[in-house]
Amino acid sequence: MKETLKKLHTTLDPIYGKHESDAIIRLIFHYLKGWSLTDMLIRQDEELSPYIKEKIEDILQRLLKHEPIQYITGEARFHGMDLKIKAGVLIPRPETDELVDLIIDENKDRDDLRVLDLCTGSGCIAIALARNLPFSKVTAVDFSPVAIEVANENSETLKTKIELVKADIFSWTPSQKYDIIVSNPPYVMDKEALTMEKNVLDYEPHEALFVRDENPLEFYSRIADIAKSSLVPGGKLYFEINPLTANSLESLLESKGFNDISVLPDTSGKSRFLSCVA
Asked: I need a labelling partner for 31 at 20 to 30 A (CA). Which of 95, 178, 211, 252 fits?
């Protein structure tokens, strides 16, 4: 075990950095052995079986090609949940976890909320909200068949009831009213791809990440229109946003008649979230 850990760090640290390598190695042993960090520490003198060593080597070779560990293991950790994940579905980010915390914190004392999650992907936001907002009714929408499949598997595995709708939000209109609408839509501009890591560019679905440079707010504009007609009076709209377009998005929402617009930072201090009232 000790020798294997040394080899993993020697190989991965120059590529991913010490902090990210630590996280990747913990995920490897959780996936292969079900071990926690404590288990890893107290079992350093254990002998690993040839089978486990072979699996670790296979994983290592895939990591050297920059394949995300979440796609290799088929698992992603989000808001205290183990989610299924697969190629073609965006890997949940820590920032999105913060968005969920924000929504829960502002609405935890309310029940029977009707919630709409647009561009749901793995279903991470929808499922986390359904599990944490008392007696909420959550609907999740995505146009990707793979995303709907994964979100459905996650909701079933976690025994969380959400309504899933396969639809293109640019042509879909809700048939009911909602208290909360939330979205983490594609928001990375094409020009930003030049600075992105290979594990994102080569493996994650571009349609879930990127927007055209000439119209970076197209998803936000459409979602705002849906929210304007589908939120109850005083209902709230929440977004994860690109810090580079925060000011222009705020202006767009003002022009569409939203009130109490707040742009909020993530833990790294970047403008990452926006909330407003219909």
From this structure: 95
Buried/exposed 26-47: b ≥16 CB within 10 Å, e otherwise: bbbbbbebebeeeebeeeeeee
3-state secondary structure at position 72 = helix
Neighbouring C-alpha atoms within 13 Å toward the C-beta of 277: 5
Q: Are 77 and 143 in contact (CB under 8 A)?
A: no
For residue 14 the two structure tokens come to: 């120059």
Q: Which DSSP letter does residue 169 get?
A: T
Question: Which phi and psi angles does 131 have, rounded to 5°?
Answer: -80, -20
Nearest to 278 by CA among 222, 219, 238: 238
Phi first, then psi: give them for residue 78, nearest 5 degrees.
-150, 125
The CA-based angle 80-83-88, given to 5 degrees, is 140
**For 145, phi and psi rounded to 5 degrees?**
-60, -35
Nearest to 227 by CA among 182, 272, 274: 182
Chain segment 85-120, per-residue pLDDT in tens: 999 999 999 999 999 999 999 999 999 999 999 999
Q: 3-class DSSP state for residue 197?
A: coil
Please enumerate in sequence order all residues whose Cβ is within 8 A of that of 174, keeping only pairs 6 or more positions apart, or say none. 116, 139, 226, 230
Structure tokens at 245: 């377009």
Is residue 196 within 8 A of residue 248, CB to CB? The reply is: no
What's the pLDDT tens digit per position in 15-34? 999 999 999 999 999 999 99
Give the burial class of 253: count Cβ atoms within 10 A of its Cβ; 0-12 exposed, 13-18 middle, 19 or more buried: buried
Task: Go through the chain and tell me how many residues it has.
Answer: 278
Would the pLDDT of 194 be above 90? no
pLDDT digits (tens, 9 = 90+) for 34-82: 999 999 999 999 999 999 999 999 999 999 999 999 999 999 999 999 9
